[in-house]
Amino acid sequence: MATTPGQGPLVGVRVVELAGIGPAPFAAMLLADLGADVVRVDRPGGVGLGINPDYDVTNRNKRSVIVDLKSPDGPARVLDLAERADILVEGLRPGVAERVGVGPEACHARNPRLVYGRMTGWGQDGPLAHRAGHDIAYLAVTGTLGMIGDADRPPVAPANLLGDYGGGSLYLVVGVLAALHHARVSGAGQVVDAAIVDGASHLAAMIHGMVAAGGWQDRRGVNLLDGGCPYYGTYETADGKYMAVGALEPQFYAEFVTLLGIPEHADARKDLSRWGELREAVAARFRSRTREEWTAVFEGADACVAPVLSLGEAPHHPHLAARGTFTDHGGITQPAPAPRFSTTPTTVRTGPARPGADTAEVARDWDVPRLTKDLP
User: Fold this and answer.
1) If I label 141, which of 1, 30, 331, 349 is the partner at 20 to 30 A Cα–Cα?
2) Which of 164, 198, 226, 358 is catalytic?
């Protein structure tokens, strides 16, 4: 089967990204990883994370131009790009893009087929739409944050993975690609309103169903998948590291208790009255050996047990190394593009785009000469 040379299935799709931080840049990175020509419109002075932009891998596979939207012809330059784009992605507060002249109405007047993707925490409408916020606040009101952590301790913030990226970026990407399909069939673009509160709530769909059915208690640390179950959770080892256990099904549980060395607890799986003693027995056994020793014990077994690795350790795990889950590019070890495609494989083609470094190239490739007006 013929394959493309590592460009991905979105080759030929043009994306304009209005620079920001958080979920919008990550969504644009995913589109770029999939092969789209993503042009990031940076503002003078930048909007960075406070790290050297050479290390901001969410800007990989992109190109960058600098446009001052406050300058007299700044909005016109962005509209020139939007006219030639398939997708535009912005993560500004509601109304800001309209105020500076690059909102959906202005863009669609130039390009009716444009998919205009909007990424916010609260959404484009509602009482909190214009309020500031971050991942943890969006998760808090959706009920998802309250699900995470021990019963007797405060909820645990899952970095910004569940809100910004899971409930935000991924839903924006699904939305703009679905709208792109519609635009190519019908010729009509549209606005995609991707809100983290919507996406994070949607991720918990199965749990809401379980609550309604009486199969999930609406409190933390007492359920099958939230650490309440003694054979689904994490345990400390002799060297202060951790093992993760997910031995839910009967056959996996049987193998788990056998390899762990507590066969006397084989019949405690469904007996909730014995879960306390089972948890203590499991914890005591894991504390008797190091993480490396337990990893060797469960090697090749169907007990659903794995070592809890750090970010630095993960790329060296034999399975991830064999699959090439991580890659090195420009001296940075980083996750490789995902998912994988049999005919249109993806790759990290370029490192993080330097602000403004590609202005002349983009002006030529997209036929937007106004971009080079201020170049020396």
Assistant:
1) 30
2) 164
